[in-house]
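Subject: sequence -> structure tokens, single chain

Hey, anyone have a minute? Need the predicted structure for the following. Not urgent.
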Amino acid sequence: MGPDHERNPRGSLDDVAIEVVGVVVAVTDDRPRVLTVGGAAPRLPTGALHLSGDVTLERALRRMVLEQTGLELGYVEQLYTLGDRDRGTDLAVRLISVAYLALVREREPQGDSQWRDLYEFLPWEDFRGGRPAPLDRSVIPALRDWVERSDGDAADVRRERAGIVFGRDGSPWDIERSLERYELLYEMGWVPEAGARQDPPQRGAAMALDHRRIVAQALGRVRGKLRYRPVVFELLSDEFTLTGLQRVVEALSGTRLHSQNFRRLIDRGGLVEGTGRHDTGTGGRPAELHRFRREVVRERPAPGVGLPGMPTSG
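Reply:
Had a minute. Here:
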């Protein structure tokens, strides 16, 4: 190495490693699912960038996911680049991770990869059955304790931050703040990755390194895009019922939506069109099948499905 390499505090020369990380998301049976590798401390699909072979970072991601899981990716977008010191297992190496979000229809993966319920890792994010039990049983008491461990102005700052991020004290619950919620819980030392005891039902299942943080960021990104980009259709078959579309949006947003209001938004936005065919496998009245109108991307600047009806402040 040349003289421009800076020595780190441990006295050894800094090396840099670059990797790509994939948050591969699907929705199956009304559950948002994320592709993981490994069992006890699962991680996201991750692989080193081949400096001479990978022409782009996105191609590196597609190659890596295919090699590790056997799945070919369709829609992908870059999430974030993580490069904080001491992130990896080798503290003498500066690990730079470029994270991507991929939306797919679930298929059986290969090797030791498997699909896991996304809310297994972030259980406080799912309001579809009412307020999540971990929120009131564990998260909110931990937040109160965190505020009370400080005093004066510092306590006021903590109280305000907890209220904004977790929808307390009159602040609304913002579904897009999933990353901020996880980061606050990490800062409090409440999640296993920050040294807390493992308690999956309340604290969520831990992941390797900072991969749960990346999942939280991906969830917030998807939820935000539901409002202004038609990304949800990447998770559906070419033909679908309006009820099926609503269930996918609910799964990703973690909320229950009013069916008439949701369909009104879909109709007003011109996002779908009927096919004239019907789904006869529902066991009830056959529902008309629809398809995504790709022309809407040219017709409107922000063709999202919208999110009518949000969780109220707790």
